[in-house]
Amino acid sequence: MDRYTHGHHESVLRSHRQRTAENSAGYLLPHLRQGMSLLDIGCGPGTITVDLAARVAPGQVTAVDIADDALDAARAAAQAHELSNIAFATADVHALEFADDTFDVVHAHQVLQHVGDPVQALREMRRVCVPGGYVAARDADYAGFIWYPQLPALDRWLDLYDRAARANGGEPDAGRRLLSWARKAGFDDITPGGGVWCFATPEDRDWWGGMWADRIVQSALADQLVDSALATSDDLVEIAAAWRAWAAAPDGWLAIPHGEILCRA
């Protein structure tokens, strides 16, 4: 990955801070035990990390990200939860600077869709995992997003995001490919699965629609779309208005599918 499509604008971190182990890593939780060592790749602001750290304590958690500002937010989250079993480091998942067989669990949430070589990333995740340990990954699948009312500007939003993510070397439809990538990475003990985020209550619509209304005009994604002439600022304002209209619709509904893999190293 040369460029993280979303960037780390406040509107992006607002989205990431809603993620918890329960709503984003539920498939992994039954396999966690106290005392396990865990590597959390692409930790972002650390809300999933702190949940995982609480579950494996006194086991040590190492949280890594490519962005220093994301790591700063994760450190703050760990301090707020008074957790002392988390270490932080900058890392590239394609070439992790950890010894072989280091961690009992290696976890990545919404990471493989953004990297240039997800198969190599999974190979690295397998390398640093102890034999018999768990490598876990979960990613959304943008082509599977469905919503109502079907506003044309939101179709335009999805097309623009797809174009921007692919221009950055990512795969926005990663969810459906996780099993294939894991097999190519050499795993033969894989439990594939899936999950869905659904936003349909007034509170959820207000949060999601408001977040994307801000994000499409202010984030790194917005800058990329305008700088690359994929969209004008007026186009993005129109999309923002559509997100607000969707959020205000009393029958508004949106679902986001995710692929999941739980692999034994």
TrEMBL record:
A GO BP annotation: methylation
Methyltransferase is among the record's keywords: yes
Pfam families: Methyltransf_31
UniProt entry tagged with the keyword Ribosomal protein: no
Gene3D superfamilies attached to this UniProt entry: Vaccinia Virus protein VP39
GO molecular-function terms, A-Z: methyltransferase activity
InterPro entries cross-referenced by the UniProt entry: Methyltranfer_dom (IPR025714), SAM-dependent_MTases_sf (IPR029063)
Keywords on record: Methyltransferase, Transferase
Regions crossing the membrane: none
Start and end residues of each Methyltransferase domain: 34-141
Cross-referenced PANTHER family: 2-METHOXY-6-POLYPRENYL-1,4-BENZOQUINOL METHYLASE, MITOCHONDRIAL, METHYLTRANSFERASE
Listed name of the protein: Methyltransferase type 11
Species per Swiss-Prot/TrEMBL record: Mycobacterium kyorinense
